[in-house]
Write a structure and sequence with these properties.
By secondary structure, the chain is an alpha+beta fold. The chain has one domain. The chain contains eight helices and four strands. The chain has a four-stranded mixed sheet. A hairpin with an 8-residue loop joins strand 2 and strand 3 (157-164). Helix 1 packs antiparallel against helix 2.
Length: 225
């Protein structure tokens, strides 16, 4: 599996046609994938192309730009199981008159929970990209959310972020084995508090906090209304 020889230039022209402000970020991302093609995610659906081909890079540019756009919270579209309400009423003593309200609030809560991970990546990108990192938006890199291009002191640095310490699935864990991907999570599932003090970039860490995350999300959501 290899990338086409002029991948950098194809990437540059592709992203310039979509959003010139993303030029350097996307080119860096394709440069990384050219060096480590096994880390490239397959693009499904109408964007399915051979990894590393010109069509793949063109599709990746579209995915990348789309992946960076603001995303609105929305409740799940699945039809709820009525047995859930039955259990709420007959075991948890929820009044029958309250079941519809509880059901709606539960759906809204799920919608909010489902978007927190995306909000976290948006917040991190707003800080990390000021310090040389590139957000791997559009799910273009397997099990990696941010990369930092080489400096005089370091090679490529790879980072996987999760909202909670129990949210990594087995597939992403397996990909990380034998690699140098750092892993960081924001919160814990068995205790309160946040984990910003352990963020792996010491310089960026000084600009990251739970208070900063809350302020960012508040502004982000207000701008979507």
């Amino acid at each position: 599996m290899t990338f086409i020889k002029n991948a950098d230039e194809i990437a540059r022209q592709a992203i310039l046609a979509i959003d010139p402000s993303l030029e350097n970020k996307f080119v860096d991302l394709i440069r990384f994938l050219s060096l480590y093609p096994a880390m490239a995610s397959a693009l499904g659906g109408k964007n399915s192309s051979k990894i590393g081909s010109e069509n793949y890079i063109l599709a990746a540019a579209s995915n990348y730009a789309t992946g960076r756009k603001p995303k609105r919270p929305k409740p799940p579209a699945t039809i709820p199981d009525e047995m859930v309400s039955f259990v709420l009423e007959h075991y948890f003593d929820v009044k029958a008159s309250d079941l519809e309200r509880v059901k709606k609030q539960h759906a809204l809560s799920m919608g909010a929970e489902n978007i927190v991970g995306n909000l976290l990546e948006h917040y991190l990108s707003s800080v990390l990209e000021l310090h040389g990192w590139v957000w791997c938006a559009g799910s273009l890199v397997k099990a990696v959310d941010f990369v930092r291009p080489p400096t005089n002191r370091t090679d490529w640095v790879l980072l996987q972020v999760k909202n909670r310490d129990n949210s990594e699935n087995s597939s992403s864990s397996a990909i990380r084995i034998g690699t140098t991907i750092d892993k960081w999570h924001r919160t814990f599932w068995k205790k309160p508090g946040s984990n910003w003090a352990t963020f792996p970039d010491a310089i960026a860490r000084e600009h990251l906090s739970e208070e900063g995350f809350r302020a960012f999300v508040k502004t982000y959501l207000e701008n979507l209304r």
